[in-house]
Fold each of these.
Amino acid sequence: MKAFKRYATLVVSLALLAAMGSLAVATSAGANRKAQSIHRADRLTQEHTLAGLATQYQLFMAKEAFDYAAAARWSFIPGDPGDAARLKTFVTKATFLKYAAVIVDLQRHPLNAYAPSTGLPQATDPGYRPLLGSLLTGKPGFSSVMSTGTVPVVAVGVPILDGATPKAVFIGYFRPDESALQTYNETLHYGKTGVGILVDSAHTVVASTNPDAVAKPAPAGPALSALGAGKEGFSEFTRNGVRKFVAYSPLGQGGWAVYAEQDASEFFGPIRSGGFRVVLMLLALLAVAAGALAFANHRRQLALRQAYEYKGDLLANTTHELKTPLTAIRGAAMTLGTRWREMAPEQVDTFLGMIHRRCDGLAKLIEKILIGARLEAGRELALRLESIQTEPLLRRIASEFQDASPKHDVVVDADDSWVGADQQAMDQILGLLTENAIKYSPDGGRISLACHREGDYVRLSVTDEGIGMSAEDAERIFDAYYKASRGDQQTFGGVGLGLSIARHLVQRHGGEIGVTSKVRRGSTFSFTLPAVEAPVVGHVQTMVDVR
Amino acid sequence: MTKKILLIEDDADIATISGELLRSAGLDVLVATSVEKAIAACAETTPDLALVDIRLPGQNGFEFVRRVRADDRFHDMRVAIYTVHEGEAALMAEAEELGVDAYLSKSQTEVLVDSVRRLLATPV
C-alpha cells in the first residue's frame, strides 16, 4: 500500500499521459482524415472544373471555326484576295482563334492565309498530325502545340462543307501563351507547390498555372501515362525524391487532357501538422508529467526531511518538556528536605504548591504524549456518548482556566444547546483549545468560549486575541508535532500534540474542527458536535476501544 | 564581598528553587528571563557568574555567551550553562567552543551550590 502511495503520482501521471495522448492522437487522426478527404474532394473538384473549362474552350474554338467556315463564301482559288480578306476579317473578329487563319485543300495544299509577321508553323510540322487525324474521322481537329519559330501556336481545323461533302479545311490558330485558358489557369491556386496543366496529345503544355511552362513538354508522371490510356483518376507518385499527388482527366477533343499536381507534403499538410501537433501535445504532456513527478518527488523528500527534523526537534522538545517539571519537582522536594526548618511557612507552602502543580502538568503532558502515541499507532480512543448541556460545561472550563491564569479574561457566550458527546473527550478538546489560547495570548488578553446551535450540529469555539498565525500554519496546525517546525517551542513550550488530539476527538464524534486566524490579531478555533434535542437519560453508546 | 550570580531562566519555579538554594549559601541572586534582559542586567552590575539556560524565549542561551564573550566589559565574568539537557554531546561541544566555564545540570540540584562555589574560586 505504501509502495502504491509512493508511486501513485507516477501511475496517475502516466495514465493521464496515455489517456490524453490517445485522445490527442485519435482526435488529430480523425480531424486529419476529414481534412484529407475535404482536400482530396476539393482538388478533384478544381481539377474537374479545369477539365470542364478546357473542354468548353475547345468546343467554343471548334464552333467558332465551324461557324465561320460555313458562313463565308469561299472561292477556293489559291491566293484569292477575297478569301484572304475573309480570313483577315475572321482573325480580327475572332474571340478564340485570333492569331491566324488558313484554308487548305483536301490535299493539304495552302489556298490562302492571313497571319501576323510572326508567321505560321511549317506545313510539315508534325504538330498538325492529330488535327488531320481527327478530321479524317469527321471531327474537328486540334494540333499539338507548334512553333512559328518565334511564338507558340495551336491550330484548330474544321472541314468546309459543300452540303455534306468536304471541300477544304479551315484552320484557325491561337497562341496558347496568350489564351483565355492560360489567363484563367493563372488564377487557379493549388497552394505553393500545386500546378494545373492542360496538355495536348503530345503532352506539350497548352496552358498552365505556371506561364513559363507553356509550349514546353509536360514533366513525366503517372498522370500522363494514365491519360495516354484515356483514364481519369487520382494518384500519388514521387518525382526527384518529392512525393506528389495528381488528379487528372482526359478531354473529349484532340487527345488533350488536364491534370493538377501538388507536393504531398503540402497536400497532406493537415496530417503533417496534425502529427506535429500530436507530438507537441505529447511533449507538453511529458513535460507536465515530468514536472509533476519532480514536484511530487521534491515534496516527498521535503516531507521526509521535515519528518526527520521533526523527530529531532520532537526529541529535544519532549526532553525539555518532561525534564523541566521533573527538575522543578525534584529541586523543590530537595530544598524542602534540606531547608524546611529554616524556611518560612508560606515559603514551604510555595514549594509544596509548586510540586503539586508541576506533578499535575507532568501528568497531563504524559497523557497527551500517550494519546498521541496511540493515535500514531492507529489505535482509536473509546467514547461513551451522552447528552451534555454545553453552557455549564463551558462555564466550568472557563472558571478553571480563569483561576489558573488570572492575568487573562476568560468569558463565555453560550446558548442552550445540548450535544451527544463523550464528557471526558469534550473536557479534553475544550481544555486543549483553551490552554492553547491562553498560551499564545498576552497578559490581559480576552479568551472567549462560545457555543451556538447550527442545524443538526452545535458549533463550539475558543477565540483569543493572541499572536495568531499565518495561513500556511493554519493549514497544518492540526498536524501532530507541526509546532516543532514553527521554531516557537522555545518561547511557548509544548510538544505540538494538543491540536492533533483535539482534531481526532472531534472527528471521532463525527464533527469538524478548523481555525480562522490573523497574525497578531488572534485566532478562533471552532468545532462542531452532533446536537441533541433534549437530555436523554441513560442513552449511552459505547465505542469499543480496538485494543 | 558577596558574590553576585545572574540566573538566566524563564521557568519561574526553577528560578525560585535555584535562587533559594544560592541565596541560602550567602550569594546574591539576580534573575533574568531572557537574553536581552540578562545583557541589560550585566551592563548595570557585572555579576561574578552567569548561570544561563539554553532554551529561552527569543534568543537562546548560547547567544548570551557569544555576546558577553565578545564584550570586554564582561571579561571577568564567569559563564556556566545551566540546563536539563545534560549529557548531550552536540550542546556540550557548542558550549565548550563558545568558551563557557562549566556545563551544569539543573537536575543535580544538590550539587548546584558546590559547583557554583568551585567556579567562583577558580581564577578567571
Note: The first strand of chain B starts at residue 4 and ends at 8.
Amino acid sequence: MADAAIKLGTEPKTTFFDKVKGLLPEEGHLNLCLTCGACSSGCPATGLEDMDPRKFLRMAALGLDEEVTKSPWVWMCTQCRRCVYACPMSIDIPQMVFQARKTWPKDKKPQGIMGSCEQALRTEGNSAMGASSEDFKFVVEDVLEEVREADPRFKDMQVPINKKGAEFVLNQNSREPVTEPDEMVPLWKILHLAGADWTYSTAGWAAENYCMFGAEEEGWEQIVRHKVKAVEDLEAKAWLNTE
Amino acid sequence: MQKFKIEPKFRLESLIKYYAQWIREGKLKVNSDWNKDLKIKFTVQDPCQLVRKSLGDPIAEDLRFAVKAVVGEENFVEMYPNRSNNFCCGGGGGFLQATGYQDARRKYGKIKFDQIMKTGAPYCITPCHNCHSQIHDLSDYYEGGYHSVHLWTLICLSLGVLGENERVYLGPELAELGL
C-alpha cells in the first residue's frame, strides 16, 4: 500500500508565474520548459547569487514568488537574450526577469539606474546624465568651431541642430557631450565625408533610456514617445542610432 | 515602440549599416594600408542589442565588412562564439549603472574577458557604449592590457583624418599615426 499523497499546505494562488504568462505574447512559452539547461549553460550570470535562468524559471513555476522576485539576480541578468536564442522552446526568461524587476519598490531598485531614469525624465533631451539641451548645443557648437579652425580639411563641416527634413536624426549618448566631447568629432567627420544629410535634435537627443532598465514602464514610455515626436516634428526619414 | 503600440512615421536605423554602405559606395574612402606593416590585430564585440536582439547576423556581417576594410582582413581576429551567439559583455540591461552590484558585474564579465584574451588581439572594437565601458573596465580590472575602441576612431584613422584629441582609447603605437 502506497503512502498517502503528500498534501501541500497552501491553497492554490495566482502566482508570479501565472501573472507573467498573462502579460506575454503566447504566454512567453513559459510552460514549455524541457529543463534541458541550455539557457543556464550559456548564461554568464549563471552562478551569481546562487541563481541561473533555468532555476529562476523552475522556481517561478513552483510558485516560489518571494524567492524569485526578490533575488538581486534580477539586476544581474543583462537582458541579453542569449538564453532565448539557445532555448529549443524559445522561452522568454528575460521578460520574466523584467517583470520581477517591476515588483521592486522604487527605493530598493539600484539607485544608479533610478537616478539616470529620473534625470532623463527631467530634461528636454532625455539625458540620463542630466545635461540640458542648451548645454548640449553649446558643447557641440564649441567643439565644432575648434575643429574647423584646427583642421582646414574640415573648415566647412556642418553639425546641424534641429534642421527640418533631413534624412537622419542622429541620437547621441550623453557620455560624449558631458565627459569626452572630442569623441563626437570622428563621428561628425565620417558623416561629413560621406555627405550624409543629418541633424541632431535638441528634444530627445540622448540615446540612452534607463527607465527601461529600471522597469519603470511609465517613464520608459514617456521617453520613447518624446523622442518619437522629436523625430517626427523634424520630419526626418530615419532615426539613426550611433551604434 | 512596438511595446507601446507606436507606429512611427520614420525608419529606425543603425549607423553600422551605413558605415558599410558608404564604404561599399566609395563615399568613405577607407583603406588598411596604415596597418600593412604594423600588423596590429583587432577583434570585434558583437553588441547584443544590435545583433542578437534587433538586426541579427546581417548587421554582424556589415560590421565585419567595415572593420576588415579599415584594419585589413588579415589583421582581424574573431572571438568565439560570435555574431548572434556571442556572449554579452555584462554591461547591458543597466548592470553598469546598478549601484552595489559591481563585483557581480565583473564576475559576469570574466567570460568576455577570457574570450578577448584568447584572440591575442591588443584591440577590441566595441560599437556600443555599454560594451565599450564594460570591456574597458574588464581590461583594467583583470589587467588584460588590451584597448577598447570605438569604430568611428578607426574609420577616421584609416581615412587619415583622426585628430590629436580623438585618440584617448588608442595605445601609444597609434597615438601619432597619420598626424
Note: Residues 15-157 of chain B form a domain with the Rossmann fold fold (CATH 3.40.50).
Amino acid sequence: MAGYTSVTPEDLAHMLDVIGVGSVEELFDGIPAGVRLRRPIDLPPGQPEQAVYAELRRLAARNVSTEDEITFLGAGMYDHYVPSIIDMLMSRSEFLTPYTPYQPEVSQGGLQVMFEYQTAISELTGLPVSNASVYEGPSAVGAAAYMAKLASKRPRLLVSRGVHPHSRATLETLAVGYGTTVEEIALEDGVTELDALRAALSDEVGAVVIQQPNFLGTIEDVTALSAAAHEHGALVICAADPLTLGVLEAPGNQGVDVCVGEGQSLGNRLDFGGPSFGFFAATEKHLRAMPGRIAGETTDADGRRGFVLTLQTREQHIRREKATSNICTSQALNALGGVVYLSWLGRQGIVELGELMLQRTHYARETLAALDGVTKLHDRPVVREFALRLAVSDREAVGRVLERCAAAGVNAGYALGRSYDEHPDGLLVAITEQRSRADIDRLAEVLGAAVAAERATVGAGATA
Amino acid sequence: MTEGRNPQSPQQRERATTIFEKGAPGRRAFRAPDLDVPAVDGLIPAASRRAASPRLPEASEPEIVRHYVNLSKRNFDLDSGFYPLGSCTMKHNPRLHERVAALPGHARLHPLQDPRRAQGALELMFELQGALAEVAGLPHVSLQPSAGSHGELAGLLLTRAYHADRGEQRTKVLTPDSAHGTNPATVTMAGYEVVKVALDAAGGVDLDDLRAKTDENVACLMLTNPSTLGIFDPNIEQMASIVHETGATLYYDGANLNAIMGYSRPGDMGFDIVHFNLHKTFTQPHGGGGPGAGPIAVSDRIEPFLPRPQVVRRAPSNGGPPVYDLDEDRGGRESKSIGKLRGFQGNYGVFVRTYAYIRSLGAEGLKDVSEVAVLNANYVLARLREKVGDQLPLAFGERCMHEFVLSGAPMKKQLGIRTLDLAKRLLDHGVHPPTVYFPLVVEEALLVEPTETETRETLDQFVDAVAAIVAEAAQDPEIARNAPYTTPVRRLDEAGAAKRPRVRQAL
C-alpha cells in the first residue's frame, strides 16, 4: 500500500477476520448508494519522496525570497533574523507533534511554555493577563473587538485609519456577524486625528481601535487617544508591533485595555503570510472574557508545581453557544518560537534591537528623503518603518519604480496606493536588524536612479 | 498501592522552574549587530519612550537550549507513542513536509511580495485549491481560514451574505446534539441563534425533529458526517432535501473527512459549504495546539461571496505559460465578497505541507488512508468488544467508520472507576488516552480514533492495556482512581487553578 500505512496482506486477513467482514469495502456499506463516489478521485498518482521534494523545490525556485534580494518590504510582517535555536526547538518531536494539552500530566512542557509565553507578553505589553495566542494579528484585532462588544453591548466601533488595512477589513467582515457598525477615524499628518476621534465618540461606542506604531510607521500618542476614549467609557484596543516595545512605552501604561498584535516578528518565519501567531493581552477584569486557551499554575496530588489549561468555562467545548469565542486552538508552536525568541533576545537585547532599528530607520529616512523626487510623507517620529512620497505621476508609476528597483536586486518597499487611495505616490519602507547601512545606501542609489528614470520617461513622453 | 511508594523519577523530583527564574542579571544570548549609522538622540518623544525595559529573561544560549529541551521531555508526543485522540486525527507527520516547508523560497517569502515574483507560491495554492475542490466535490475553494472554527465562521458569514443578497433575513442555525462545541459557539459569533436537533436511536439526526425545526427562519444546518459518533448518517440525502427545500444552506464540518476519501464527497451529499482541517486529514503537525488551517470549499451559488484574495490563473494571450495572481480587486463596492477573515493569504506554510502530502499519496493513497483508518478503527473496536465489551460497550450501532464511541457507564457502575480514571491509568501504559467525555450525548464517553498510520501491533498493545486496566480495577479500583504515577506530575488541581488564576510568573 502507498503512503504511511502498514497493513500487510497477513494483517489484513487477520483484521478482517477479527472484525467479521469479508473485505474492507464492506466496512463502507453504511454509505448510501446515492452519495457514493463511483470513480477514482481525479488527482495525479502518488510520487516517491525524492520526486515530491524536487517538485516543491521547483516551486520554491519560482519565488523571490528575502534571501534573493535586499528587501525593505514590511507592512505587517518583517524580515528579522530567526536564530538557529528556534529551528531546533520548533522541530523537536515533543513540541511539533502533540495535540492541545488535554492531558496535563503528560503535557507539562507545552503548558509551561504557554505560561512563560503569557508572562513574556504581559511584560512586553504592560498588561497583566495574556492568553496562549490566537491565529494571527488581524484576527486578534477582530477577537478583541468581539470581546469589547460582549462586554459593552454598545453598537459602534471606531477604528483609526492608521490600523493595518487587513485588520480593518477583518473587523468589517466580523462586525456584520455580531451587529456592530465600524467607523473610520482619519489620519492627519501621519497620526490619528484626535479631534476627529473626540467628535465621533459617544456613549454608543464600545471600543476604539488604534495601532502603535501605525501602518505608516508613525508613533501615535496612545495616552491621549486612550484618555479620549475612556471619557465615553469606550475600551481601547491597541494593535502593537511587539519588537518596538523595547523602546516604546508599554501600551498598558498608556491606558490601553486590550493589546493585541501580529507575533511573526518574534522568531517566526515569513512563510508568505502564515502560520504565525497573534498575541492578546488585557487588563485583569477581562480575564474571564478572553478568547482562546489560557495556561494557569497549580499543584498536583503530591504538591508539585504544575500547569493546566484554565478558565475553560469561557470556552466552546464547555459553554458551546454561550462561549466567549469559537476559537478552539492557539498557535502553540508559533508562540513557542515567540517565547524562545524573547528569551534569546533578553531584557537588554530587546532594547538594543529597538534602538538599532530606530537609528537605522532615521538614517534611511533622511538619506532617502534627500534624493531628488523623494520626500517624507510627514515629519512625525517613527521607529522601524516610514512613508515617503515619490514625485511621480500615479500608482502605476510607483509600480514601475518598484519594478526597476527589483530588477536591480532591491525590494524598495510597499506601494501605499495598494491600500490607501489618498497616497497613490506613497512608499512604505521597513527596516530590520538585517538591513545594514550598506543595504540602505544601496537602496538610496537604486531608488534615486529608478525615480529619475521614471521622471525622465514621463518627461520625454510629455515633450514628444 | 505500591506504585505510589516507588521512588520518584528525576523529572518528578525536580521542581518546575520557568525561564524567568533562571539566568542572572546581565546574562545574554543575543549580540546586536554594530551600530553602523550616526547615533541621534531624541528620536522618540519623551512621553512615548519606554520608562522601564520589559523584564524578559536574562540567560545564555546554552541555558535557554537546556531549559526548553528539558521542558520538551515533559511532553508526550505522537512520534513517541500511540495517540488515539478521537476527532483529532493524530496521524503520522511526515518529515518531508518540514523539509520542504523550510526551503527559503517558501519560508522566507514575504506575503506582500509582488505576485509576479511569487509565482511558485501562487501556483502551489492554485493547485491545492483544485485538489481540495476535487476531494470535497465542490468547485470553489478559499484557503484563507486559519482553523476549522475559522472555516465555520466563514461558512456562516457566507450563508448570511447569500441570504442577504436574496433579500432574506434568517435567524436560526441548526446543529445536532453530537456537534463539536465550536459549531454552536460559531453560530453565536455569526449573530444567529442555535437550535439543537435531536438524535435518533441509531445515533443519526432525527428526521422528524429536523423537519419540525426547519422553517423559513433557518439559515443553515451544520453537520459532521460521519458524525462524532463515528457513524455515517444513512439519511443524509433526505436531510439535504429537507434543508434545501426551505432555502437554507448545508454546512459540512470536515473534522471527520479522514473516513470517506475516495468513497464519498460532501458535495455529492448535498453540502453547500465544507471546511477542511488540514491539521487532521492532511497531517499538518498539531504543534501542541496549533497551527492548523481550515480552508473551505463551496458550491456555485456561494462562490460570489468568498473571502478575498482568491488565487487565479490567467492564460496569456500570446500563448505563453499560465500566470498566477491574487484576485484582490473584487473587494470594491460592487463586490459581494464577505471580505477578509485575517491578514494576507492564509497559512501558506500549512499549504506547502498539505500539497506535499497530496503529491506523495495521490488519488490511490488518499483512498488507502480512509480504508485503513476505517479498518484500524473497526479492528480496535472488535477486539475491545471481545475483551471489555461488558464494561465498555459501543454507544451506538455495530460497526464504525474511522472512530467509535464507547460508554464507560457500566464500568463505572460495576468497577467503580470512571472513564477519566481509565484515561489517566493509560498514561502509565505509555499511551495517550482517547478523547473523554465527548460527545456529550454519551454517558462516560470514550472516543477512540486510531488513524491509518498505526501498525496492528500498536493497536493490539492498546487493546491489551485497556483490558489490563479493567482487570486491575476489578481487583483494586483505587489504582486507577489515583493514576497516573509515572508521569512528570500527577493529577493536577484544575479547580484550584480556575478559582485563583495565576497566569504569569511573578517577577
Note: The CA atoms of residues 144 and 343 of chain B lie 9 Å apart.
